[in-house]
UniProtKB/TrEMBL annotation:
Pfam family, one: TonB_dep_Rec_b-barrel
Name this protein carries in UniProt: TonB-dependent receptor
Signal peptide coordinates: 1-30
Principal location: membrane
Domain TonB-dependent receptor-like beta-barrel positions: 364-836
Superkingdom in the source lineage: Bacteria
Subcellular location field: Cell outer membrane
InterPro entries on file: Beta-barrel_TonB (IPR000531), Beta-barrel_TonB_sf (IPR036942), Plug_dom (IPR012910), Plug_dom_sf (IPR037066), TAT_signal (IPR006311)
Keywords from the named record: Cell outer membrane, Membrane, Receptor, Signal, TonB box
Family per record: Belongs to the TonB-dependent receptor family.
Length: 901
C-alpha cells in the first residue's frame, strides 16, 4: 500500500531539482546519483524536501538552497531485509521456483539453520517444533497431529505460497511462544496482469514405482482421497460410541454384539495383497486477475491442486538390552510398508484495493489422505524370542480449512497512521477409521498362524479449531534530518480447542480356535460365519479411566507496544514489550461416562516479554544487527494427556505427563550483513539461548513395553554460528554456453551446540513418579545435547539462469548431522544410550525450461531427488549398533509440463 519513504524515484526527482536550479553543471551529479541509487534503507537530508517531492511544480518553486547533501545507504539491501528490523530469512517466489520443492516443509530446509523432521515439522536452529510457531498470513493455525499442536508444514503446497518469512529474533508483535523462530507463510495474491496456468506432472521412486508392493483394496474411490463410505462406522457401533456404552455382554445382548461384529467391513479392509505400484501423478490449475471498479481494484486469485504419490519402505526395527556393558538386539523385525498419499488443495482469495485501503478475504482448504498397508515380522523378546508377525491396514485423513479476513488502512495527510487488522477461523481434523492390526505366531512347521488375542480395530478422531483476531495501529512520527519513528500498539486473541477420542475393538475367541481356523485366510477367519457367541465375539477394550479421550483448550490474550526509530543516524532501534495472559488445560475423559483417576491439567501464566533490536547501517551496503528478548514455550496438548498413544510412523508408544510446565527462554542474536550486489550477499551471525525447564522426551520401561514420555529438564543452553553467501557470476568472454548464463553459488552453514545442565540437587516430575520430585540425573545426563539439535546444518546451491535459452538448472545439496530423537530407557548408571538419527546428505537436481509452441507458452520441469541414495537411520550405540528404525528412501524423479494461457 502507501509508502512515504524516499525511494529511488524520489532520489532521482531530487537530483532533477538540482539540475533545474543550477543548470547543466549539475547534470553530472544527477547522473551519478541515478547510476547508484536504489531503494534506500536510510536517507539523510540536511534540510527538508517539499511536502510532495513527486510534484514537479513544487520542486521547481523550491529554492535550491533548501536541498543539501543526499546520502543513499543500503542500495542493494533487499526490500524484505530493509523492512524487517529483526534477524530474519526470506523465501521468495523465485526461491520456491528454483528449488522446485512441492511443500512448504521441503522448501524451508533450504533456509539457514532449518531442518525437517518426519518430512513435516521444521526445526529452527536445532530446537524442536514445539519451540516454533507457524502462521498463515499472520494468523495462527491448528494442528491435525495427535502428538503436536504445531501444524505440519507438509500440508501446504508451495504453489499457494508467494513467500515465507522465518524471523529468528523476537519482536513483540508476534506470539510469545517463540524459541527457534516464527514461520509466517504468505499466500499468493491477485496479480497485476491476468493469468491462467495448467500443470500436469508424473513421477516415481526407485524403491516403489513399478514394483510389487503391499496393498489392500479399500474402496473404489480411494484414489480421490475420499472413500465411498466403506469405512463409515457401522450404525449400531456408532450409536454405542455416542451413548458412551462399552461394547460387551454387560451392556448388550449376545445377538446385538453379534450384529455389531458382522457389521464391520471384512475383506476389502483386512485382506492384504501385492500389486504393482503405479507412477505418481499431479494436476494443478491456477488463475487470477485484477480489475478496476467504482469502489477500488477488485482482485481474484484461485489455485487448485491434486497430487497422488506412493512410497514403499523396507525397514529393520530392533530393540536392544544390556548384556554386560554392551547393548545387544533382543528383538529384530523386518518391516514392509506401502502408502498412498493423496493431497487435494484449494486456495481462493478476493481483495479490494484503493490508494489508502486494502481488504483481503483468503480461504484455504487442504486434505491429505494416507492409505497404508504394512507388515512387521521377527523374533520378539516379549514373546520369549518366538517369531511374531503383525499386519496393519490404515487410513488417515488430515484436513485443514482456514478463512481469514484482513485489512490494511492508511490515514492522515501523508499516511502517517496505519491500521492493520485480521480475523480468522481455522479448523483441522484427523480421522482414522478402521485402523486395523492382526497378529500371527508360528506353528511347529514355521507356518504363520493366527494369534487372535493380538487383533484390534480402532476408530479415532481428532478435531482442533482456532478462533483468532488481532489489530495493530502504527503512527509515523517525523524526526530531525528526514528520519522518523514508528510507534506501534496492538492486541490479539486466540482460542484453541481440541477434542480427541479413540475406540479400540477386538474379537475374542470364546472357546479358542480350531487348527483350520488358525491357518485360515484373514477374511475367512473374520467372516460372518465365524462371528457368533461361541466362536468370535466383539468387545471394546481399554478406553476406560480416561485412557482414550481428552478435551483440551488454550486461550491467549495479548497486548503489546513497540517503537521503531532511528534516534541516531544510520542506527535503527526497535524495542517493546508484550504482555500475554495464557490459560491451557487438558482434561482426560472417560469414554463411558465414568470418572477418571487423572485430574485436569491446568497451566495459567502471565508473562511480560520484552525485546530489543538494533540495526546499524554503518556503510553503504553493510549493516550489523543485535537483538535480545525473552520468550516462552508451552507444552503441547498431547504431551500433557496421561494416555498411551501408538505412533504409526515409528510404532512407538507415547504417553503424556500432566506435570509439565512452561519453558522460559532468553534469546540473544547478532548478525553482520553485506549486500554487495543485487540479490547477492554475505551474512554471518551468532546466537545464544538459555532455556529454563525445556521439555524433553525420554524412554521408560512399563512392564515389557517401552514408552516415550516427556519431562521438564532443569536447564539448557543453545549457542551457534550461522553463515550464508549468495553470489552470481557472469563470463562474457567465454563460449556462448557459458557466457549466456548467469551462474549461481549459494551456500549456508549453521554450527550449533546445546548443553542440558543437570546438577546434584535438580529434580524432575514424571508421570511414573506420581507427581513426586525425582532426581533429574536418573533420567538425563548432565552435558548431553537437547533433543532434536544437530551440530551441523548446511545447504549448497549451484546452478545457472539462461535468459536466452529461457532455462534454469540447480544442484541442491542439504546436510544435517545426527540429532537425539529420545532419551534412552533406564535410570542412573543403568540408562541406555540416547536414540540418535542420522539425516545425512541429500542431493537434488532441478531443471526448468520455457518454450513456445504455436504461440502458446509452455514450461517444462525435471526434478531428481536424493541422488546420493541417502537412507533413514535411527539407532542406539553401545558396543553394538541397535537399528531402531532403518530403511532406504530411494531416488525419486518427476517431470511436469505447464501451459500458460
Amino acid at each position: 500500500m502507501k509508502n512515504k519513504t524516499l525511494t529511488r524515484n524520489g532520489v532521482l526527482l531530487a537530483s532533477s531539482a538540482l539540475v533545474a536550479a543550477f543548470g547543466a553543471p549539475s547534470l553530472a551529479l544527477a547522473q551519478a546519483v541515478a547510476q547508484t541509487a536504489a531503494p534506500a534503507a536510510a536517507v539523510a537530508l540536511s534540510t527538508e524536501l517539499p511536502a510532495d517531492p513527486e510534484s514537479p511544480d513544487q520542486v521547481s518553486q523550491t529554492p535550491a538552497t533548501q536541498l543539501g547533501d543526499i546520502v543513499v545507504l543500503g542500495r542493494n539491501i533487499p526490500q524484505e531485509n530493509r523492512q524487517s528490523a529483526e534477524v530474519a530469512a526470506f523465501l521468495t517466489s523465485e526461491d520456491l521456483q528454483r528449488t522446485g520443492d512441492s511443500t512448504a516443509a521441503a522448501a524451508l530446509t533450504r533456509v539457514t539453520g532449518l531442518s525437517i523432521v518426519d518430512g513435516r515439522f521444521v526445526y529452527v536452529r536445532g530446537l524442536g517444533e514445539r519451540y516454533s510457531s507457524a502462521l498463515l498470513n499472520g494468523s495462527p493455525l491448528p494442528s491435525p497431529e495427535p502428538l503436536q499442536r504445531v501444524v505440519p508444514l507438509d500440508l501446504f503446497p508451495s504453489s499457494i505460497l508467494a513467500g515465507v518469512t522465518v524471523q529468528k529474533s523476537y519482536s513483540p508483535n508476534y506470539p510469545g511462544e517463540f524459541g527457534g523462530g516464527v514461520i509466517d507463510l504468505r499466500t499468493v495474491d491477485a496479480p497485476a496482469d491476468p493469468f491462467l496456468t495448467f500443470k500436469v506432472g508424473v513421477g516415481g521412486n526407485t524403491e516403489t514405482t513399478a514394483r510389487d508392493n503391499l496393498v489392500y483394496y479399500g474402496s473404489d474411490t480411494d484414489w480421490t482421497g475420499f472413500d465411498d463410505e466403506t469405512r463409515k462406522v457401522p450404525g449400531q457401533i456408532a450409536q454405542a460410541f455416542r451413548l458412551g456404552k462399552q461394547i460387551n455382554l454387560a451392556n448388550f445382548s449376545a445377538s446385538e454384539v453379534q450384529a455389531m461384529g458382522r457389521s464391520l467391513v471384512n475383506a476389502p479392509l483386512r485382506l492384504m495383497q501385492r500389486q504393482q505400484t503405479p507412477v505418481d501423478g499431479s494436476l494443478e490449475l491456477a488463475g487470477g486477475f485484477r480489475t478496476p471498479t467504482e469502489i477500488g481494484d477488485l482482485g481474484v486469485i484461485a489455485v487448485a491442486g491434486y497430487d497422488n504419490s506412493w512410497r514403499t519402505r523396507q525397514a529393520i526395527q530392533e530393540e536392544g538390552q544390556f548384556q554386560g556393558d554392551d547393548l545387544v538386539p533382543v528383538s529384530t523385525f523386518d518391516v514392509e510398508s506401502n502408502q498412498n498419499d493423496v493431497r487435494l488443495n484449494f486456495l481462493g482469495g478476493l481483495s479490494l484495493t484503493t490508494d489508502d485501503h486494502e481488504v483481503k478475504w483468503t480461504n484455504l482448504y487442504v486434505r491429505t489422505t494416507t492409505k497404508r498397508a504394512r507388515t512387521s515380522a521377527g523374533p520378539d523378546f516379549d514373546a520369549g524370542g518366538s517369531v511374531i508377525r503383525n499386519d496393519y491396514t490404515e487410513w488417515f485423513v488430515r484436513q485443514l480449512f482456514t478463512s481469514q479476513l484482513a485489512g490494511e488502512h492508511y490515514f492522515g495527510a501523508d499516511g502517517e497512521w496505519k491500521l492493520d487488522w485480521r480475523a480468522a477461523y481455522a479448523t483441522t481434523s484427523r480421522d482414522a477409521p478402521y485402523e486395523s492390526r492382526f497378529q500371527y505366531g508360528v506353528d511347529a512347521q514355521d507356518r504363520f498362524i493366527h494369534n487372535v488375542q493380538g487383533n484390534q480395530i480402532s476408530f479415532s478422531e481428532l478435531d482442533d479449531e482456532v478462533w483468532s483476531g488481532g489489530v495493530d495501529l502504527a503512527y509515523k512520527l517525523p524526526m530531525a534530518a528526514g528520519r522518523e519513528a514508528t510507534i506501534s500498539v496492538g492486541a490479539s486473541t486466540l482460542d484453541n480447542t481440541r477434542s480427541a477420542e479413540r475406540h479400540d475393538l477386538q474379537f475374542e475367541a470364546v472357546n479358542g480356535l480350531t487348527d483350520s481356523q488358525r491357518h485360515s485366510r484373514i477374511d475367512y477367519l473374520f467372516s460372518d460365519f465365524n462371528i457368533n457367541p461361541w466362536t468370535l465375539q466383539l468387545r471394546e477394550i481399554a478406553g476406560s479411566n480416561g485412557a482414550n479421550a481428552y478435551d483440551a483448550d488454550m486461550k491467549v490474550n495479548a497486548v503489546y507496544a513497540m517503537v521503531d526509530a532511528e534516534f541516531v543516524p544510520t542506527v535503527r532501534t526497535t524495542f517493546g514489550v508484550r504482555f500475554e495472559d495464557g490459560q491451557q488445560s487438558v482434561t482426560p475423559r472417560d469414554l463411558f461416562g465414568g470418572t477418571t483417576s487423572y485430574d485436569a491439567t491446568e497451566i495459567e501464566e502471565q508473562y511480560w516479554l520484552p525485546s530489543f533490536t538494533a540495526t546499524w547501517n554503518f556503510t553503504e551496503d553493510q549493516q550489523l544487527r543485535f537483538g535480545a528478548s525473552k520468550t516462552i514455550g508451552r507444552p503441547q496438548f498431547r504431551e500433557l494427556a496421561p494416555q498411551a498413544y501408538t505412533d504409526p510412523e515409528s510404532d512407538r508408544v507415547f504417553i503424556g505427563n500432566p506435570y509439565l510446565t512452561d519453558t522460559e527462554i532468553l534469546n540473544l542474536d547478532a548478525r553482520w550483513e553485506w549486500y554487495f550486489g543485487r540479490q547477492q550477499f554475505v551474512t554471518a551471525g551468532v546466537f545464544y539461548k538459555k532455556l529454563d525447564k525445556p521439555v524433553e522426551a525420554v524412554i521408560v520401561d512399563v512392564g515389557n513395553q517401552r514408552q516415550q514420555t516427556f519431562l521438564n529438564a532443569p536447564e539448557a543452553t543453545v549457542m551457534g554460528v550461522e553463515v550464508e553467501v549468495k553470489k552470481y557470476f557472469e563470463f562474457a568472454d567465454q563460449p556462448s554456453f557459458i557466457s549466456n548464463k548467469r551462474w549461481l553459488v549459494q551456500a549456508n552453514y549453521t554450527w550449533s551446540d546445546s548443553d542440558v545442565s543437570v546438577g546434584e540437587g535438580d529434580t524432575v516430575i514424571t508421570l511414573g513418579g506420581g507427581g513426586r520430585p525425582e532426581q533429574a540425573a536418573f533420567f538425563i545426563q548432565d552435558g548431553s545435547r537437547l533433543q532434536g539439535q544437530s551440530e551441523h546444518v548446511a545447504n549448497l546451491q549451484l546452478g545457472w539462469e539462461d535468459d536466452t535459452a529461457r532455462s534454469q538448472a540447480t544442484f541442491i545439496l542439504n546436510y544435517v548431522s545426527e540429532r537425539i530423537t529420545a532419551r534412552g530407557a533406564g535410570v542412573g548408571t543403568a540408562r541406555e544410550p540416547d536414540y540418535l538419527q542420522e539425516p545425512g546428505a541429500f542431493l537434488d537436481f532441478v531443471y526448468r525450461k520455457d518454450f513456445t509452441v504455436k504461440g502458446r507458452d509452455l514450461g517444462f520441469a525435471l526434478e531428481l531427488r536424493n541422488l546420493l541414495g541417502t537412507d533413514f537411520e535411527e539407532y542406539q550405540e553401545k558396543g553394538n549398533r541397535i537399528r531402531i528404525n532403518q530403511y532406504d528412501l530411494g531416488q525419486s524423479a518427476s517431470v511436469s509440463l505447464t501451459a500458460r494461457f
